[in-house]
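Board work, copied verbatim: histidine kinase
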Amino acid sequence: EITERKQAEDKLQVAQLQWSQFLEVSPDPMWIKDASGRYVAASKSYFHADPSAEGNIIGKTDAECFPPEKAAVYVANDRVAIERGATEGEFTAVGVDGKLRNFLTKKVVLRAPDGSVAGTLGVSRDITDRKKIEEALQDSVDRWRVAIDAISDIVCLISSEHTFLAINEAGVRALNLPRSEIIGRKCYELVHGTTCPIPVCPCSKAIETGLEGSSDYEQGGRFYSLQAWPLKDKSGHVTSLVHIVKDITERKRAEADKEAMQAQLRQSQKMGAIGQLAGGIAHDFNNLLTGILGNIALMRSSLAPADPLLENLNAAETSARQAADLTKGLLTFSRSAMILPVPMNIAAALDVTLTLLKQSLPATMEIVRDHEQTAWNVLLDQSQLTQILLNLAVNARDAMKGKGTLTIRARDETVDAAYVHEHPYARTGEFVHLSVSDTGSGMSAEVMQHLFEPFYTTKPVGSGTGLGLSIVYGAVKQAGGWITAVSMEGVGVTFDIYLPRCLEESIQSVTPSPLPVNAGSGTILVVEDEPIVCAVAQALLSRSGYTVLTAPDGTSALNILREHPVSIGLILLDMTMPGMTTSEVVQAIRALDPKVPILLTSGYTSNDIVRQMLEEGAVQEFLPKPYELHELLEKVQELLHKS
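↓ predict structure ↓
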């Protein structure tokens, strides 16, 4: 019996020693009170937190150790712990450093072996730093939420089960529901009104594949872009995803507006091309009409006033005047002509286009045709071919500065797999290969990289739109073909165009009518390369008593002027002639005779060069074709009188 008691006492001493050591090393303040509320033990850290309590609390109650208000709180907490078995709460107190600190206090009831209350055990932990971290984290979360809520796009966090975990204000407004009624709900239920996920939804794809998903859709007249980014755990499983919905209506409208503007620019460029061709056509027709009206005037002057043939001449003159009005209409050609592709023989179509093109280019540019070896048809609109060739010709004209050789070739070719391997954008089959080469300055590798890009130009500001080659590219693509370019600086450029063969027979003839040929010679110098116009002018002036000399080009005119330096009193000069440009001829004339009057004439009046030369005084008058006898004579007499 004594031995058992001794063993029990030893165990108690060991337990007390262990408890004492625990109180010594515990980093958190700890204390024990007996059933009457008196302190019976406290950890060393307790006195570190409150040095004044050391030696003053053991054996005392809270009422004896603390101010009444604090003591009442401690006693009440002890009572709750005894009633409930434990209690927990936060409070603030001044720490050793004199600063207010946060503590988390827990209390449990201690019971005797018989179950009666033996006292309470309390432990308090300084959570000041933890509170600061929590507050900083909460502040960061709040700032992040404010930032996300400020975004106009819908941003939400969705679980792998398609449940809303979080959503910003834009999403709340879009769904028109309180946030509390959104969180926890299935996204497909609220957004699409379905009972299961939609397979095409980027969220479904992101959850299934673990990859980013995106798509665009239209709803209620507005356009939206959807994107979903999966969030994965360490093992790579998708746990949730960030889903963003952006309203791209304005962007779509801007793109549509941009496309409309580009279409307008393309239309404007096409009208510019047609305008140049119209000038060439007007020039040719007006030359013919000048010959017709001039010969009518000559015939009328040789008939008696009562001659019955005068009625026929008047009718012919009326028709010729109507034709002259038609040529004016060419300059205001419709701006909305439809493109109607038809089967056409490329060789014949090239003849028509090049005949018209010739009058729109400087006479100093030589055009070489090499298309006799092609017999295949293509499905094309004549205006498309005109647009392609005109833009390439204008590009060549600028590269050659108005002088050089433009070579246009056409061949029937079969494109094989080897060619397609080197040119991935091509395809095998039968094609008409059209090539356009110039002897200009060529292009650098950098320029070649941007060759067909809209608005890209190497010309000075105001000298080009940068749309010419992009229009060519579009026209070729529209015709089902492709275009490439090869160039080196200093050696010109070659454009290769492949147009698919059309097996249908051509349904229209495109052979141009031949121009009449005539000749003439004669102290008024007539410089005109069109024989019929030259002959009419010579006859009209000769019958009016003038001596007439004629020259078919600028070089011949200068030779005649050197041979007759005094006798020539006026020069009637046509604008479009082979060899020298109009400006070069005028400058050379002025070098030989600064005072001789120059009467400029042309079938295409809308020319800036004419206005410039008139303003500068390089030429004295301008007479548009077709002109009549009295108009020509009035201008001639006026200029001779002034000189």
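The two ends are 160 Å apart (CA to CA).
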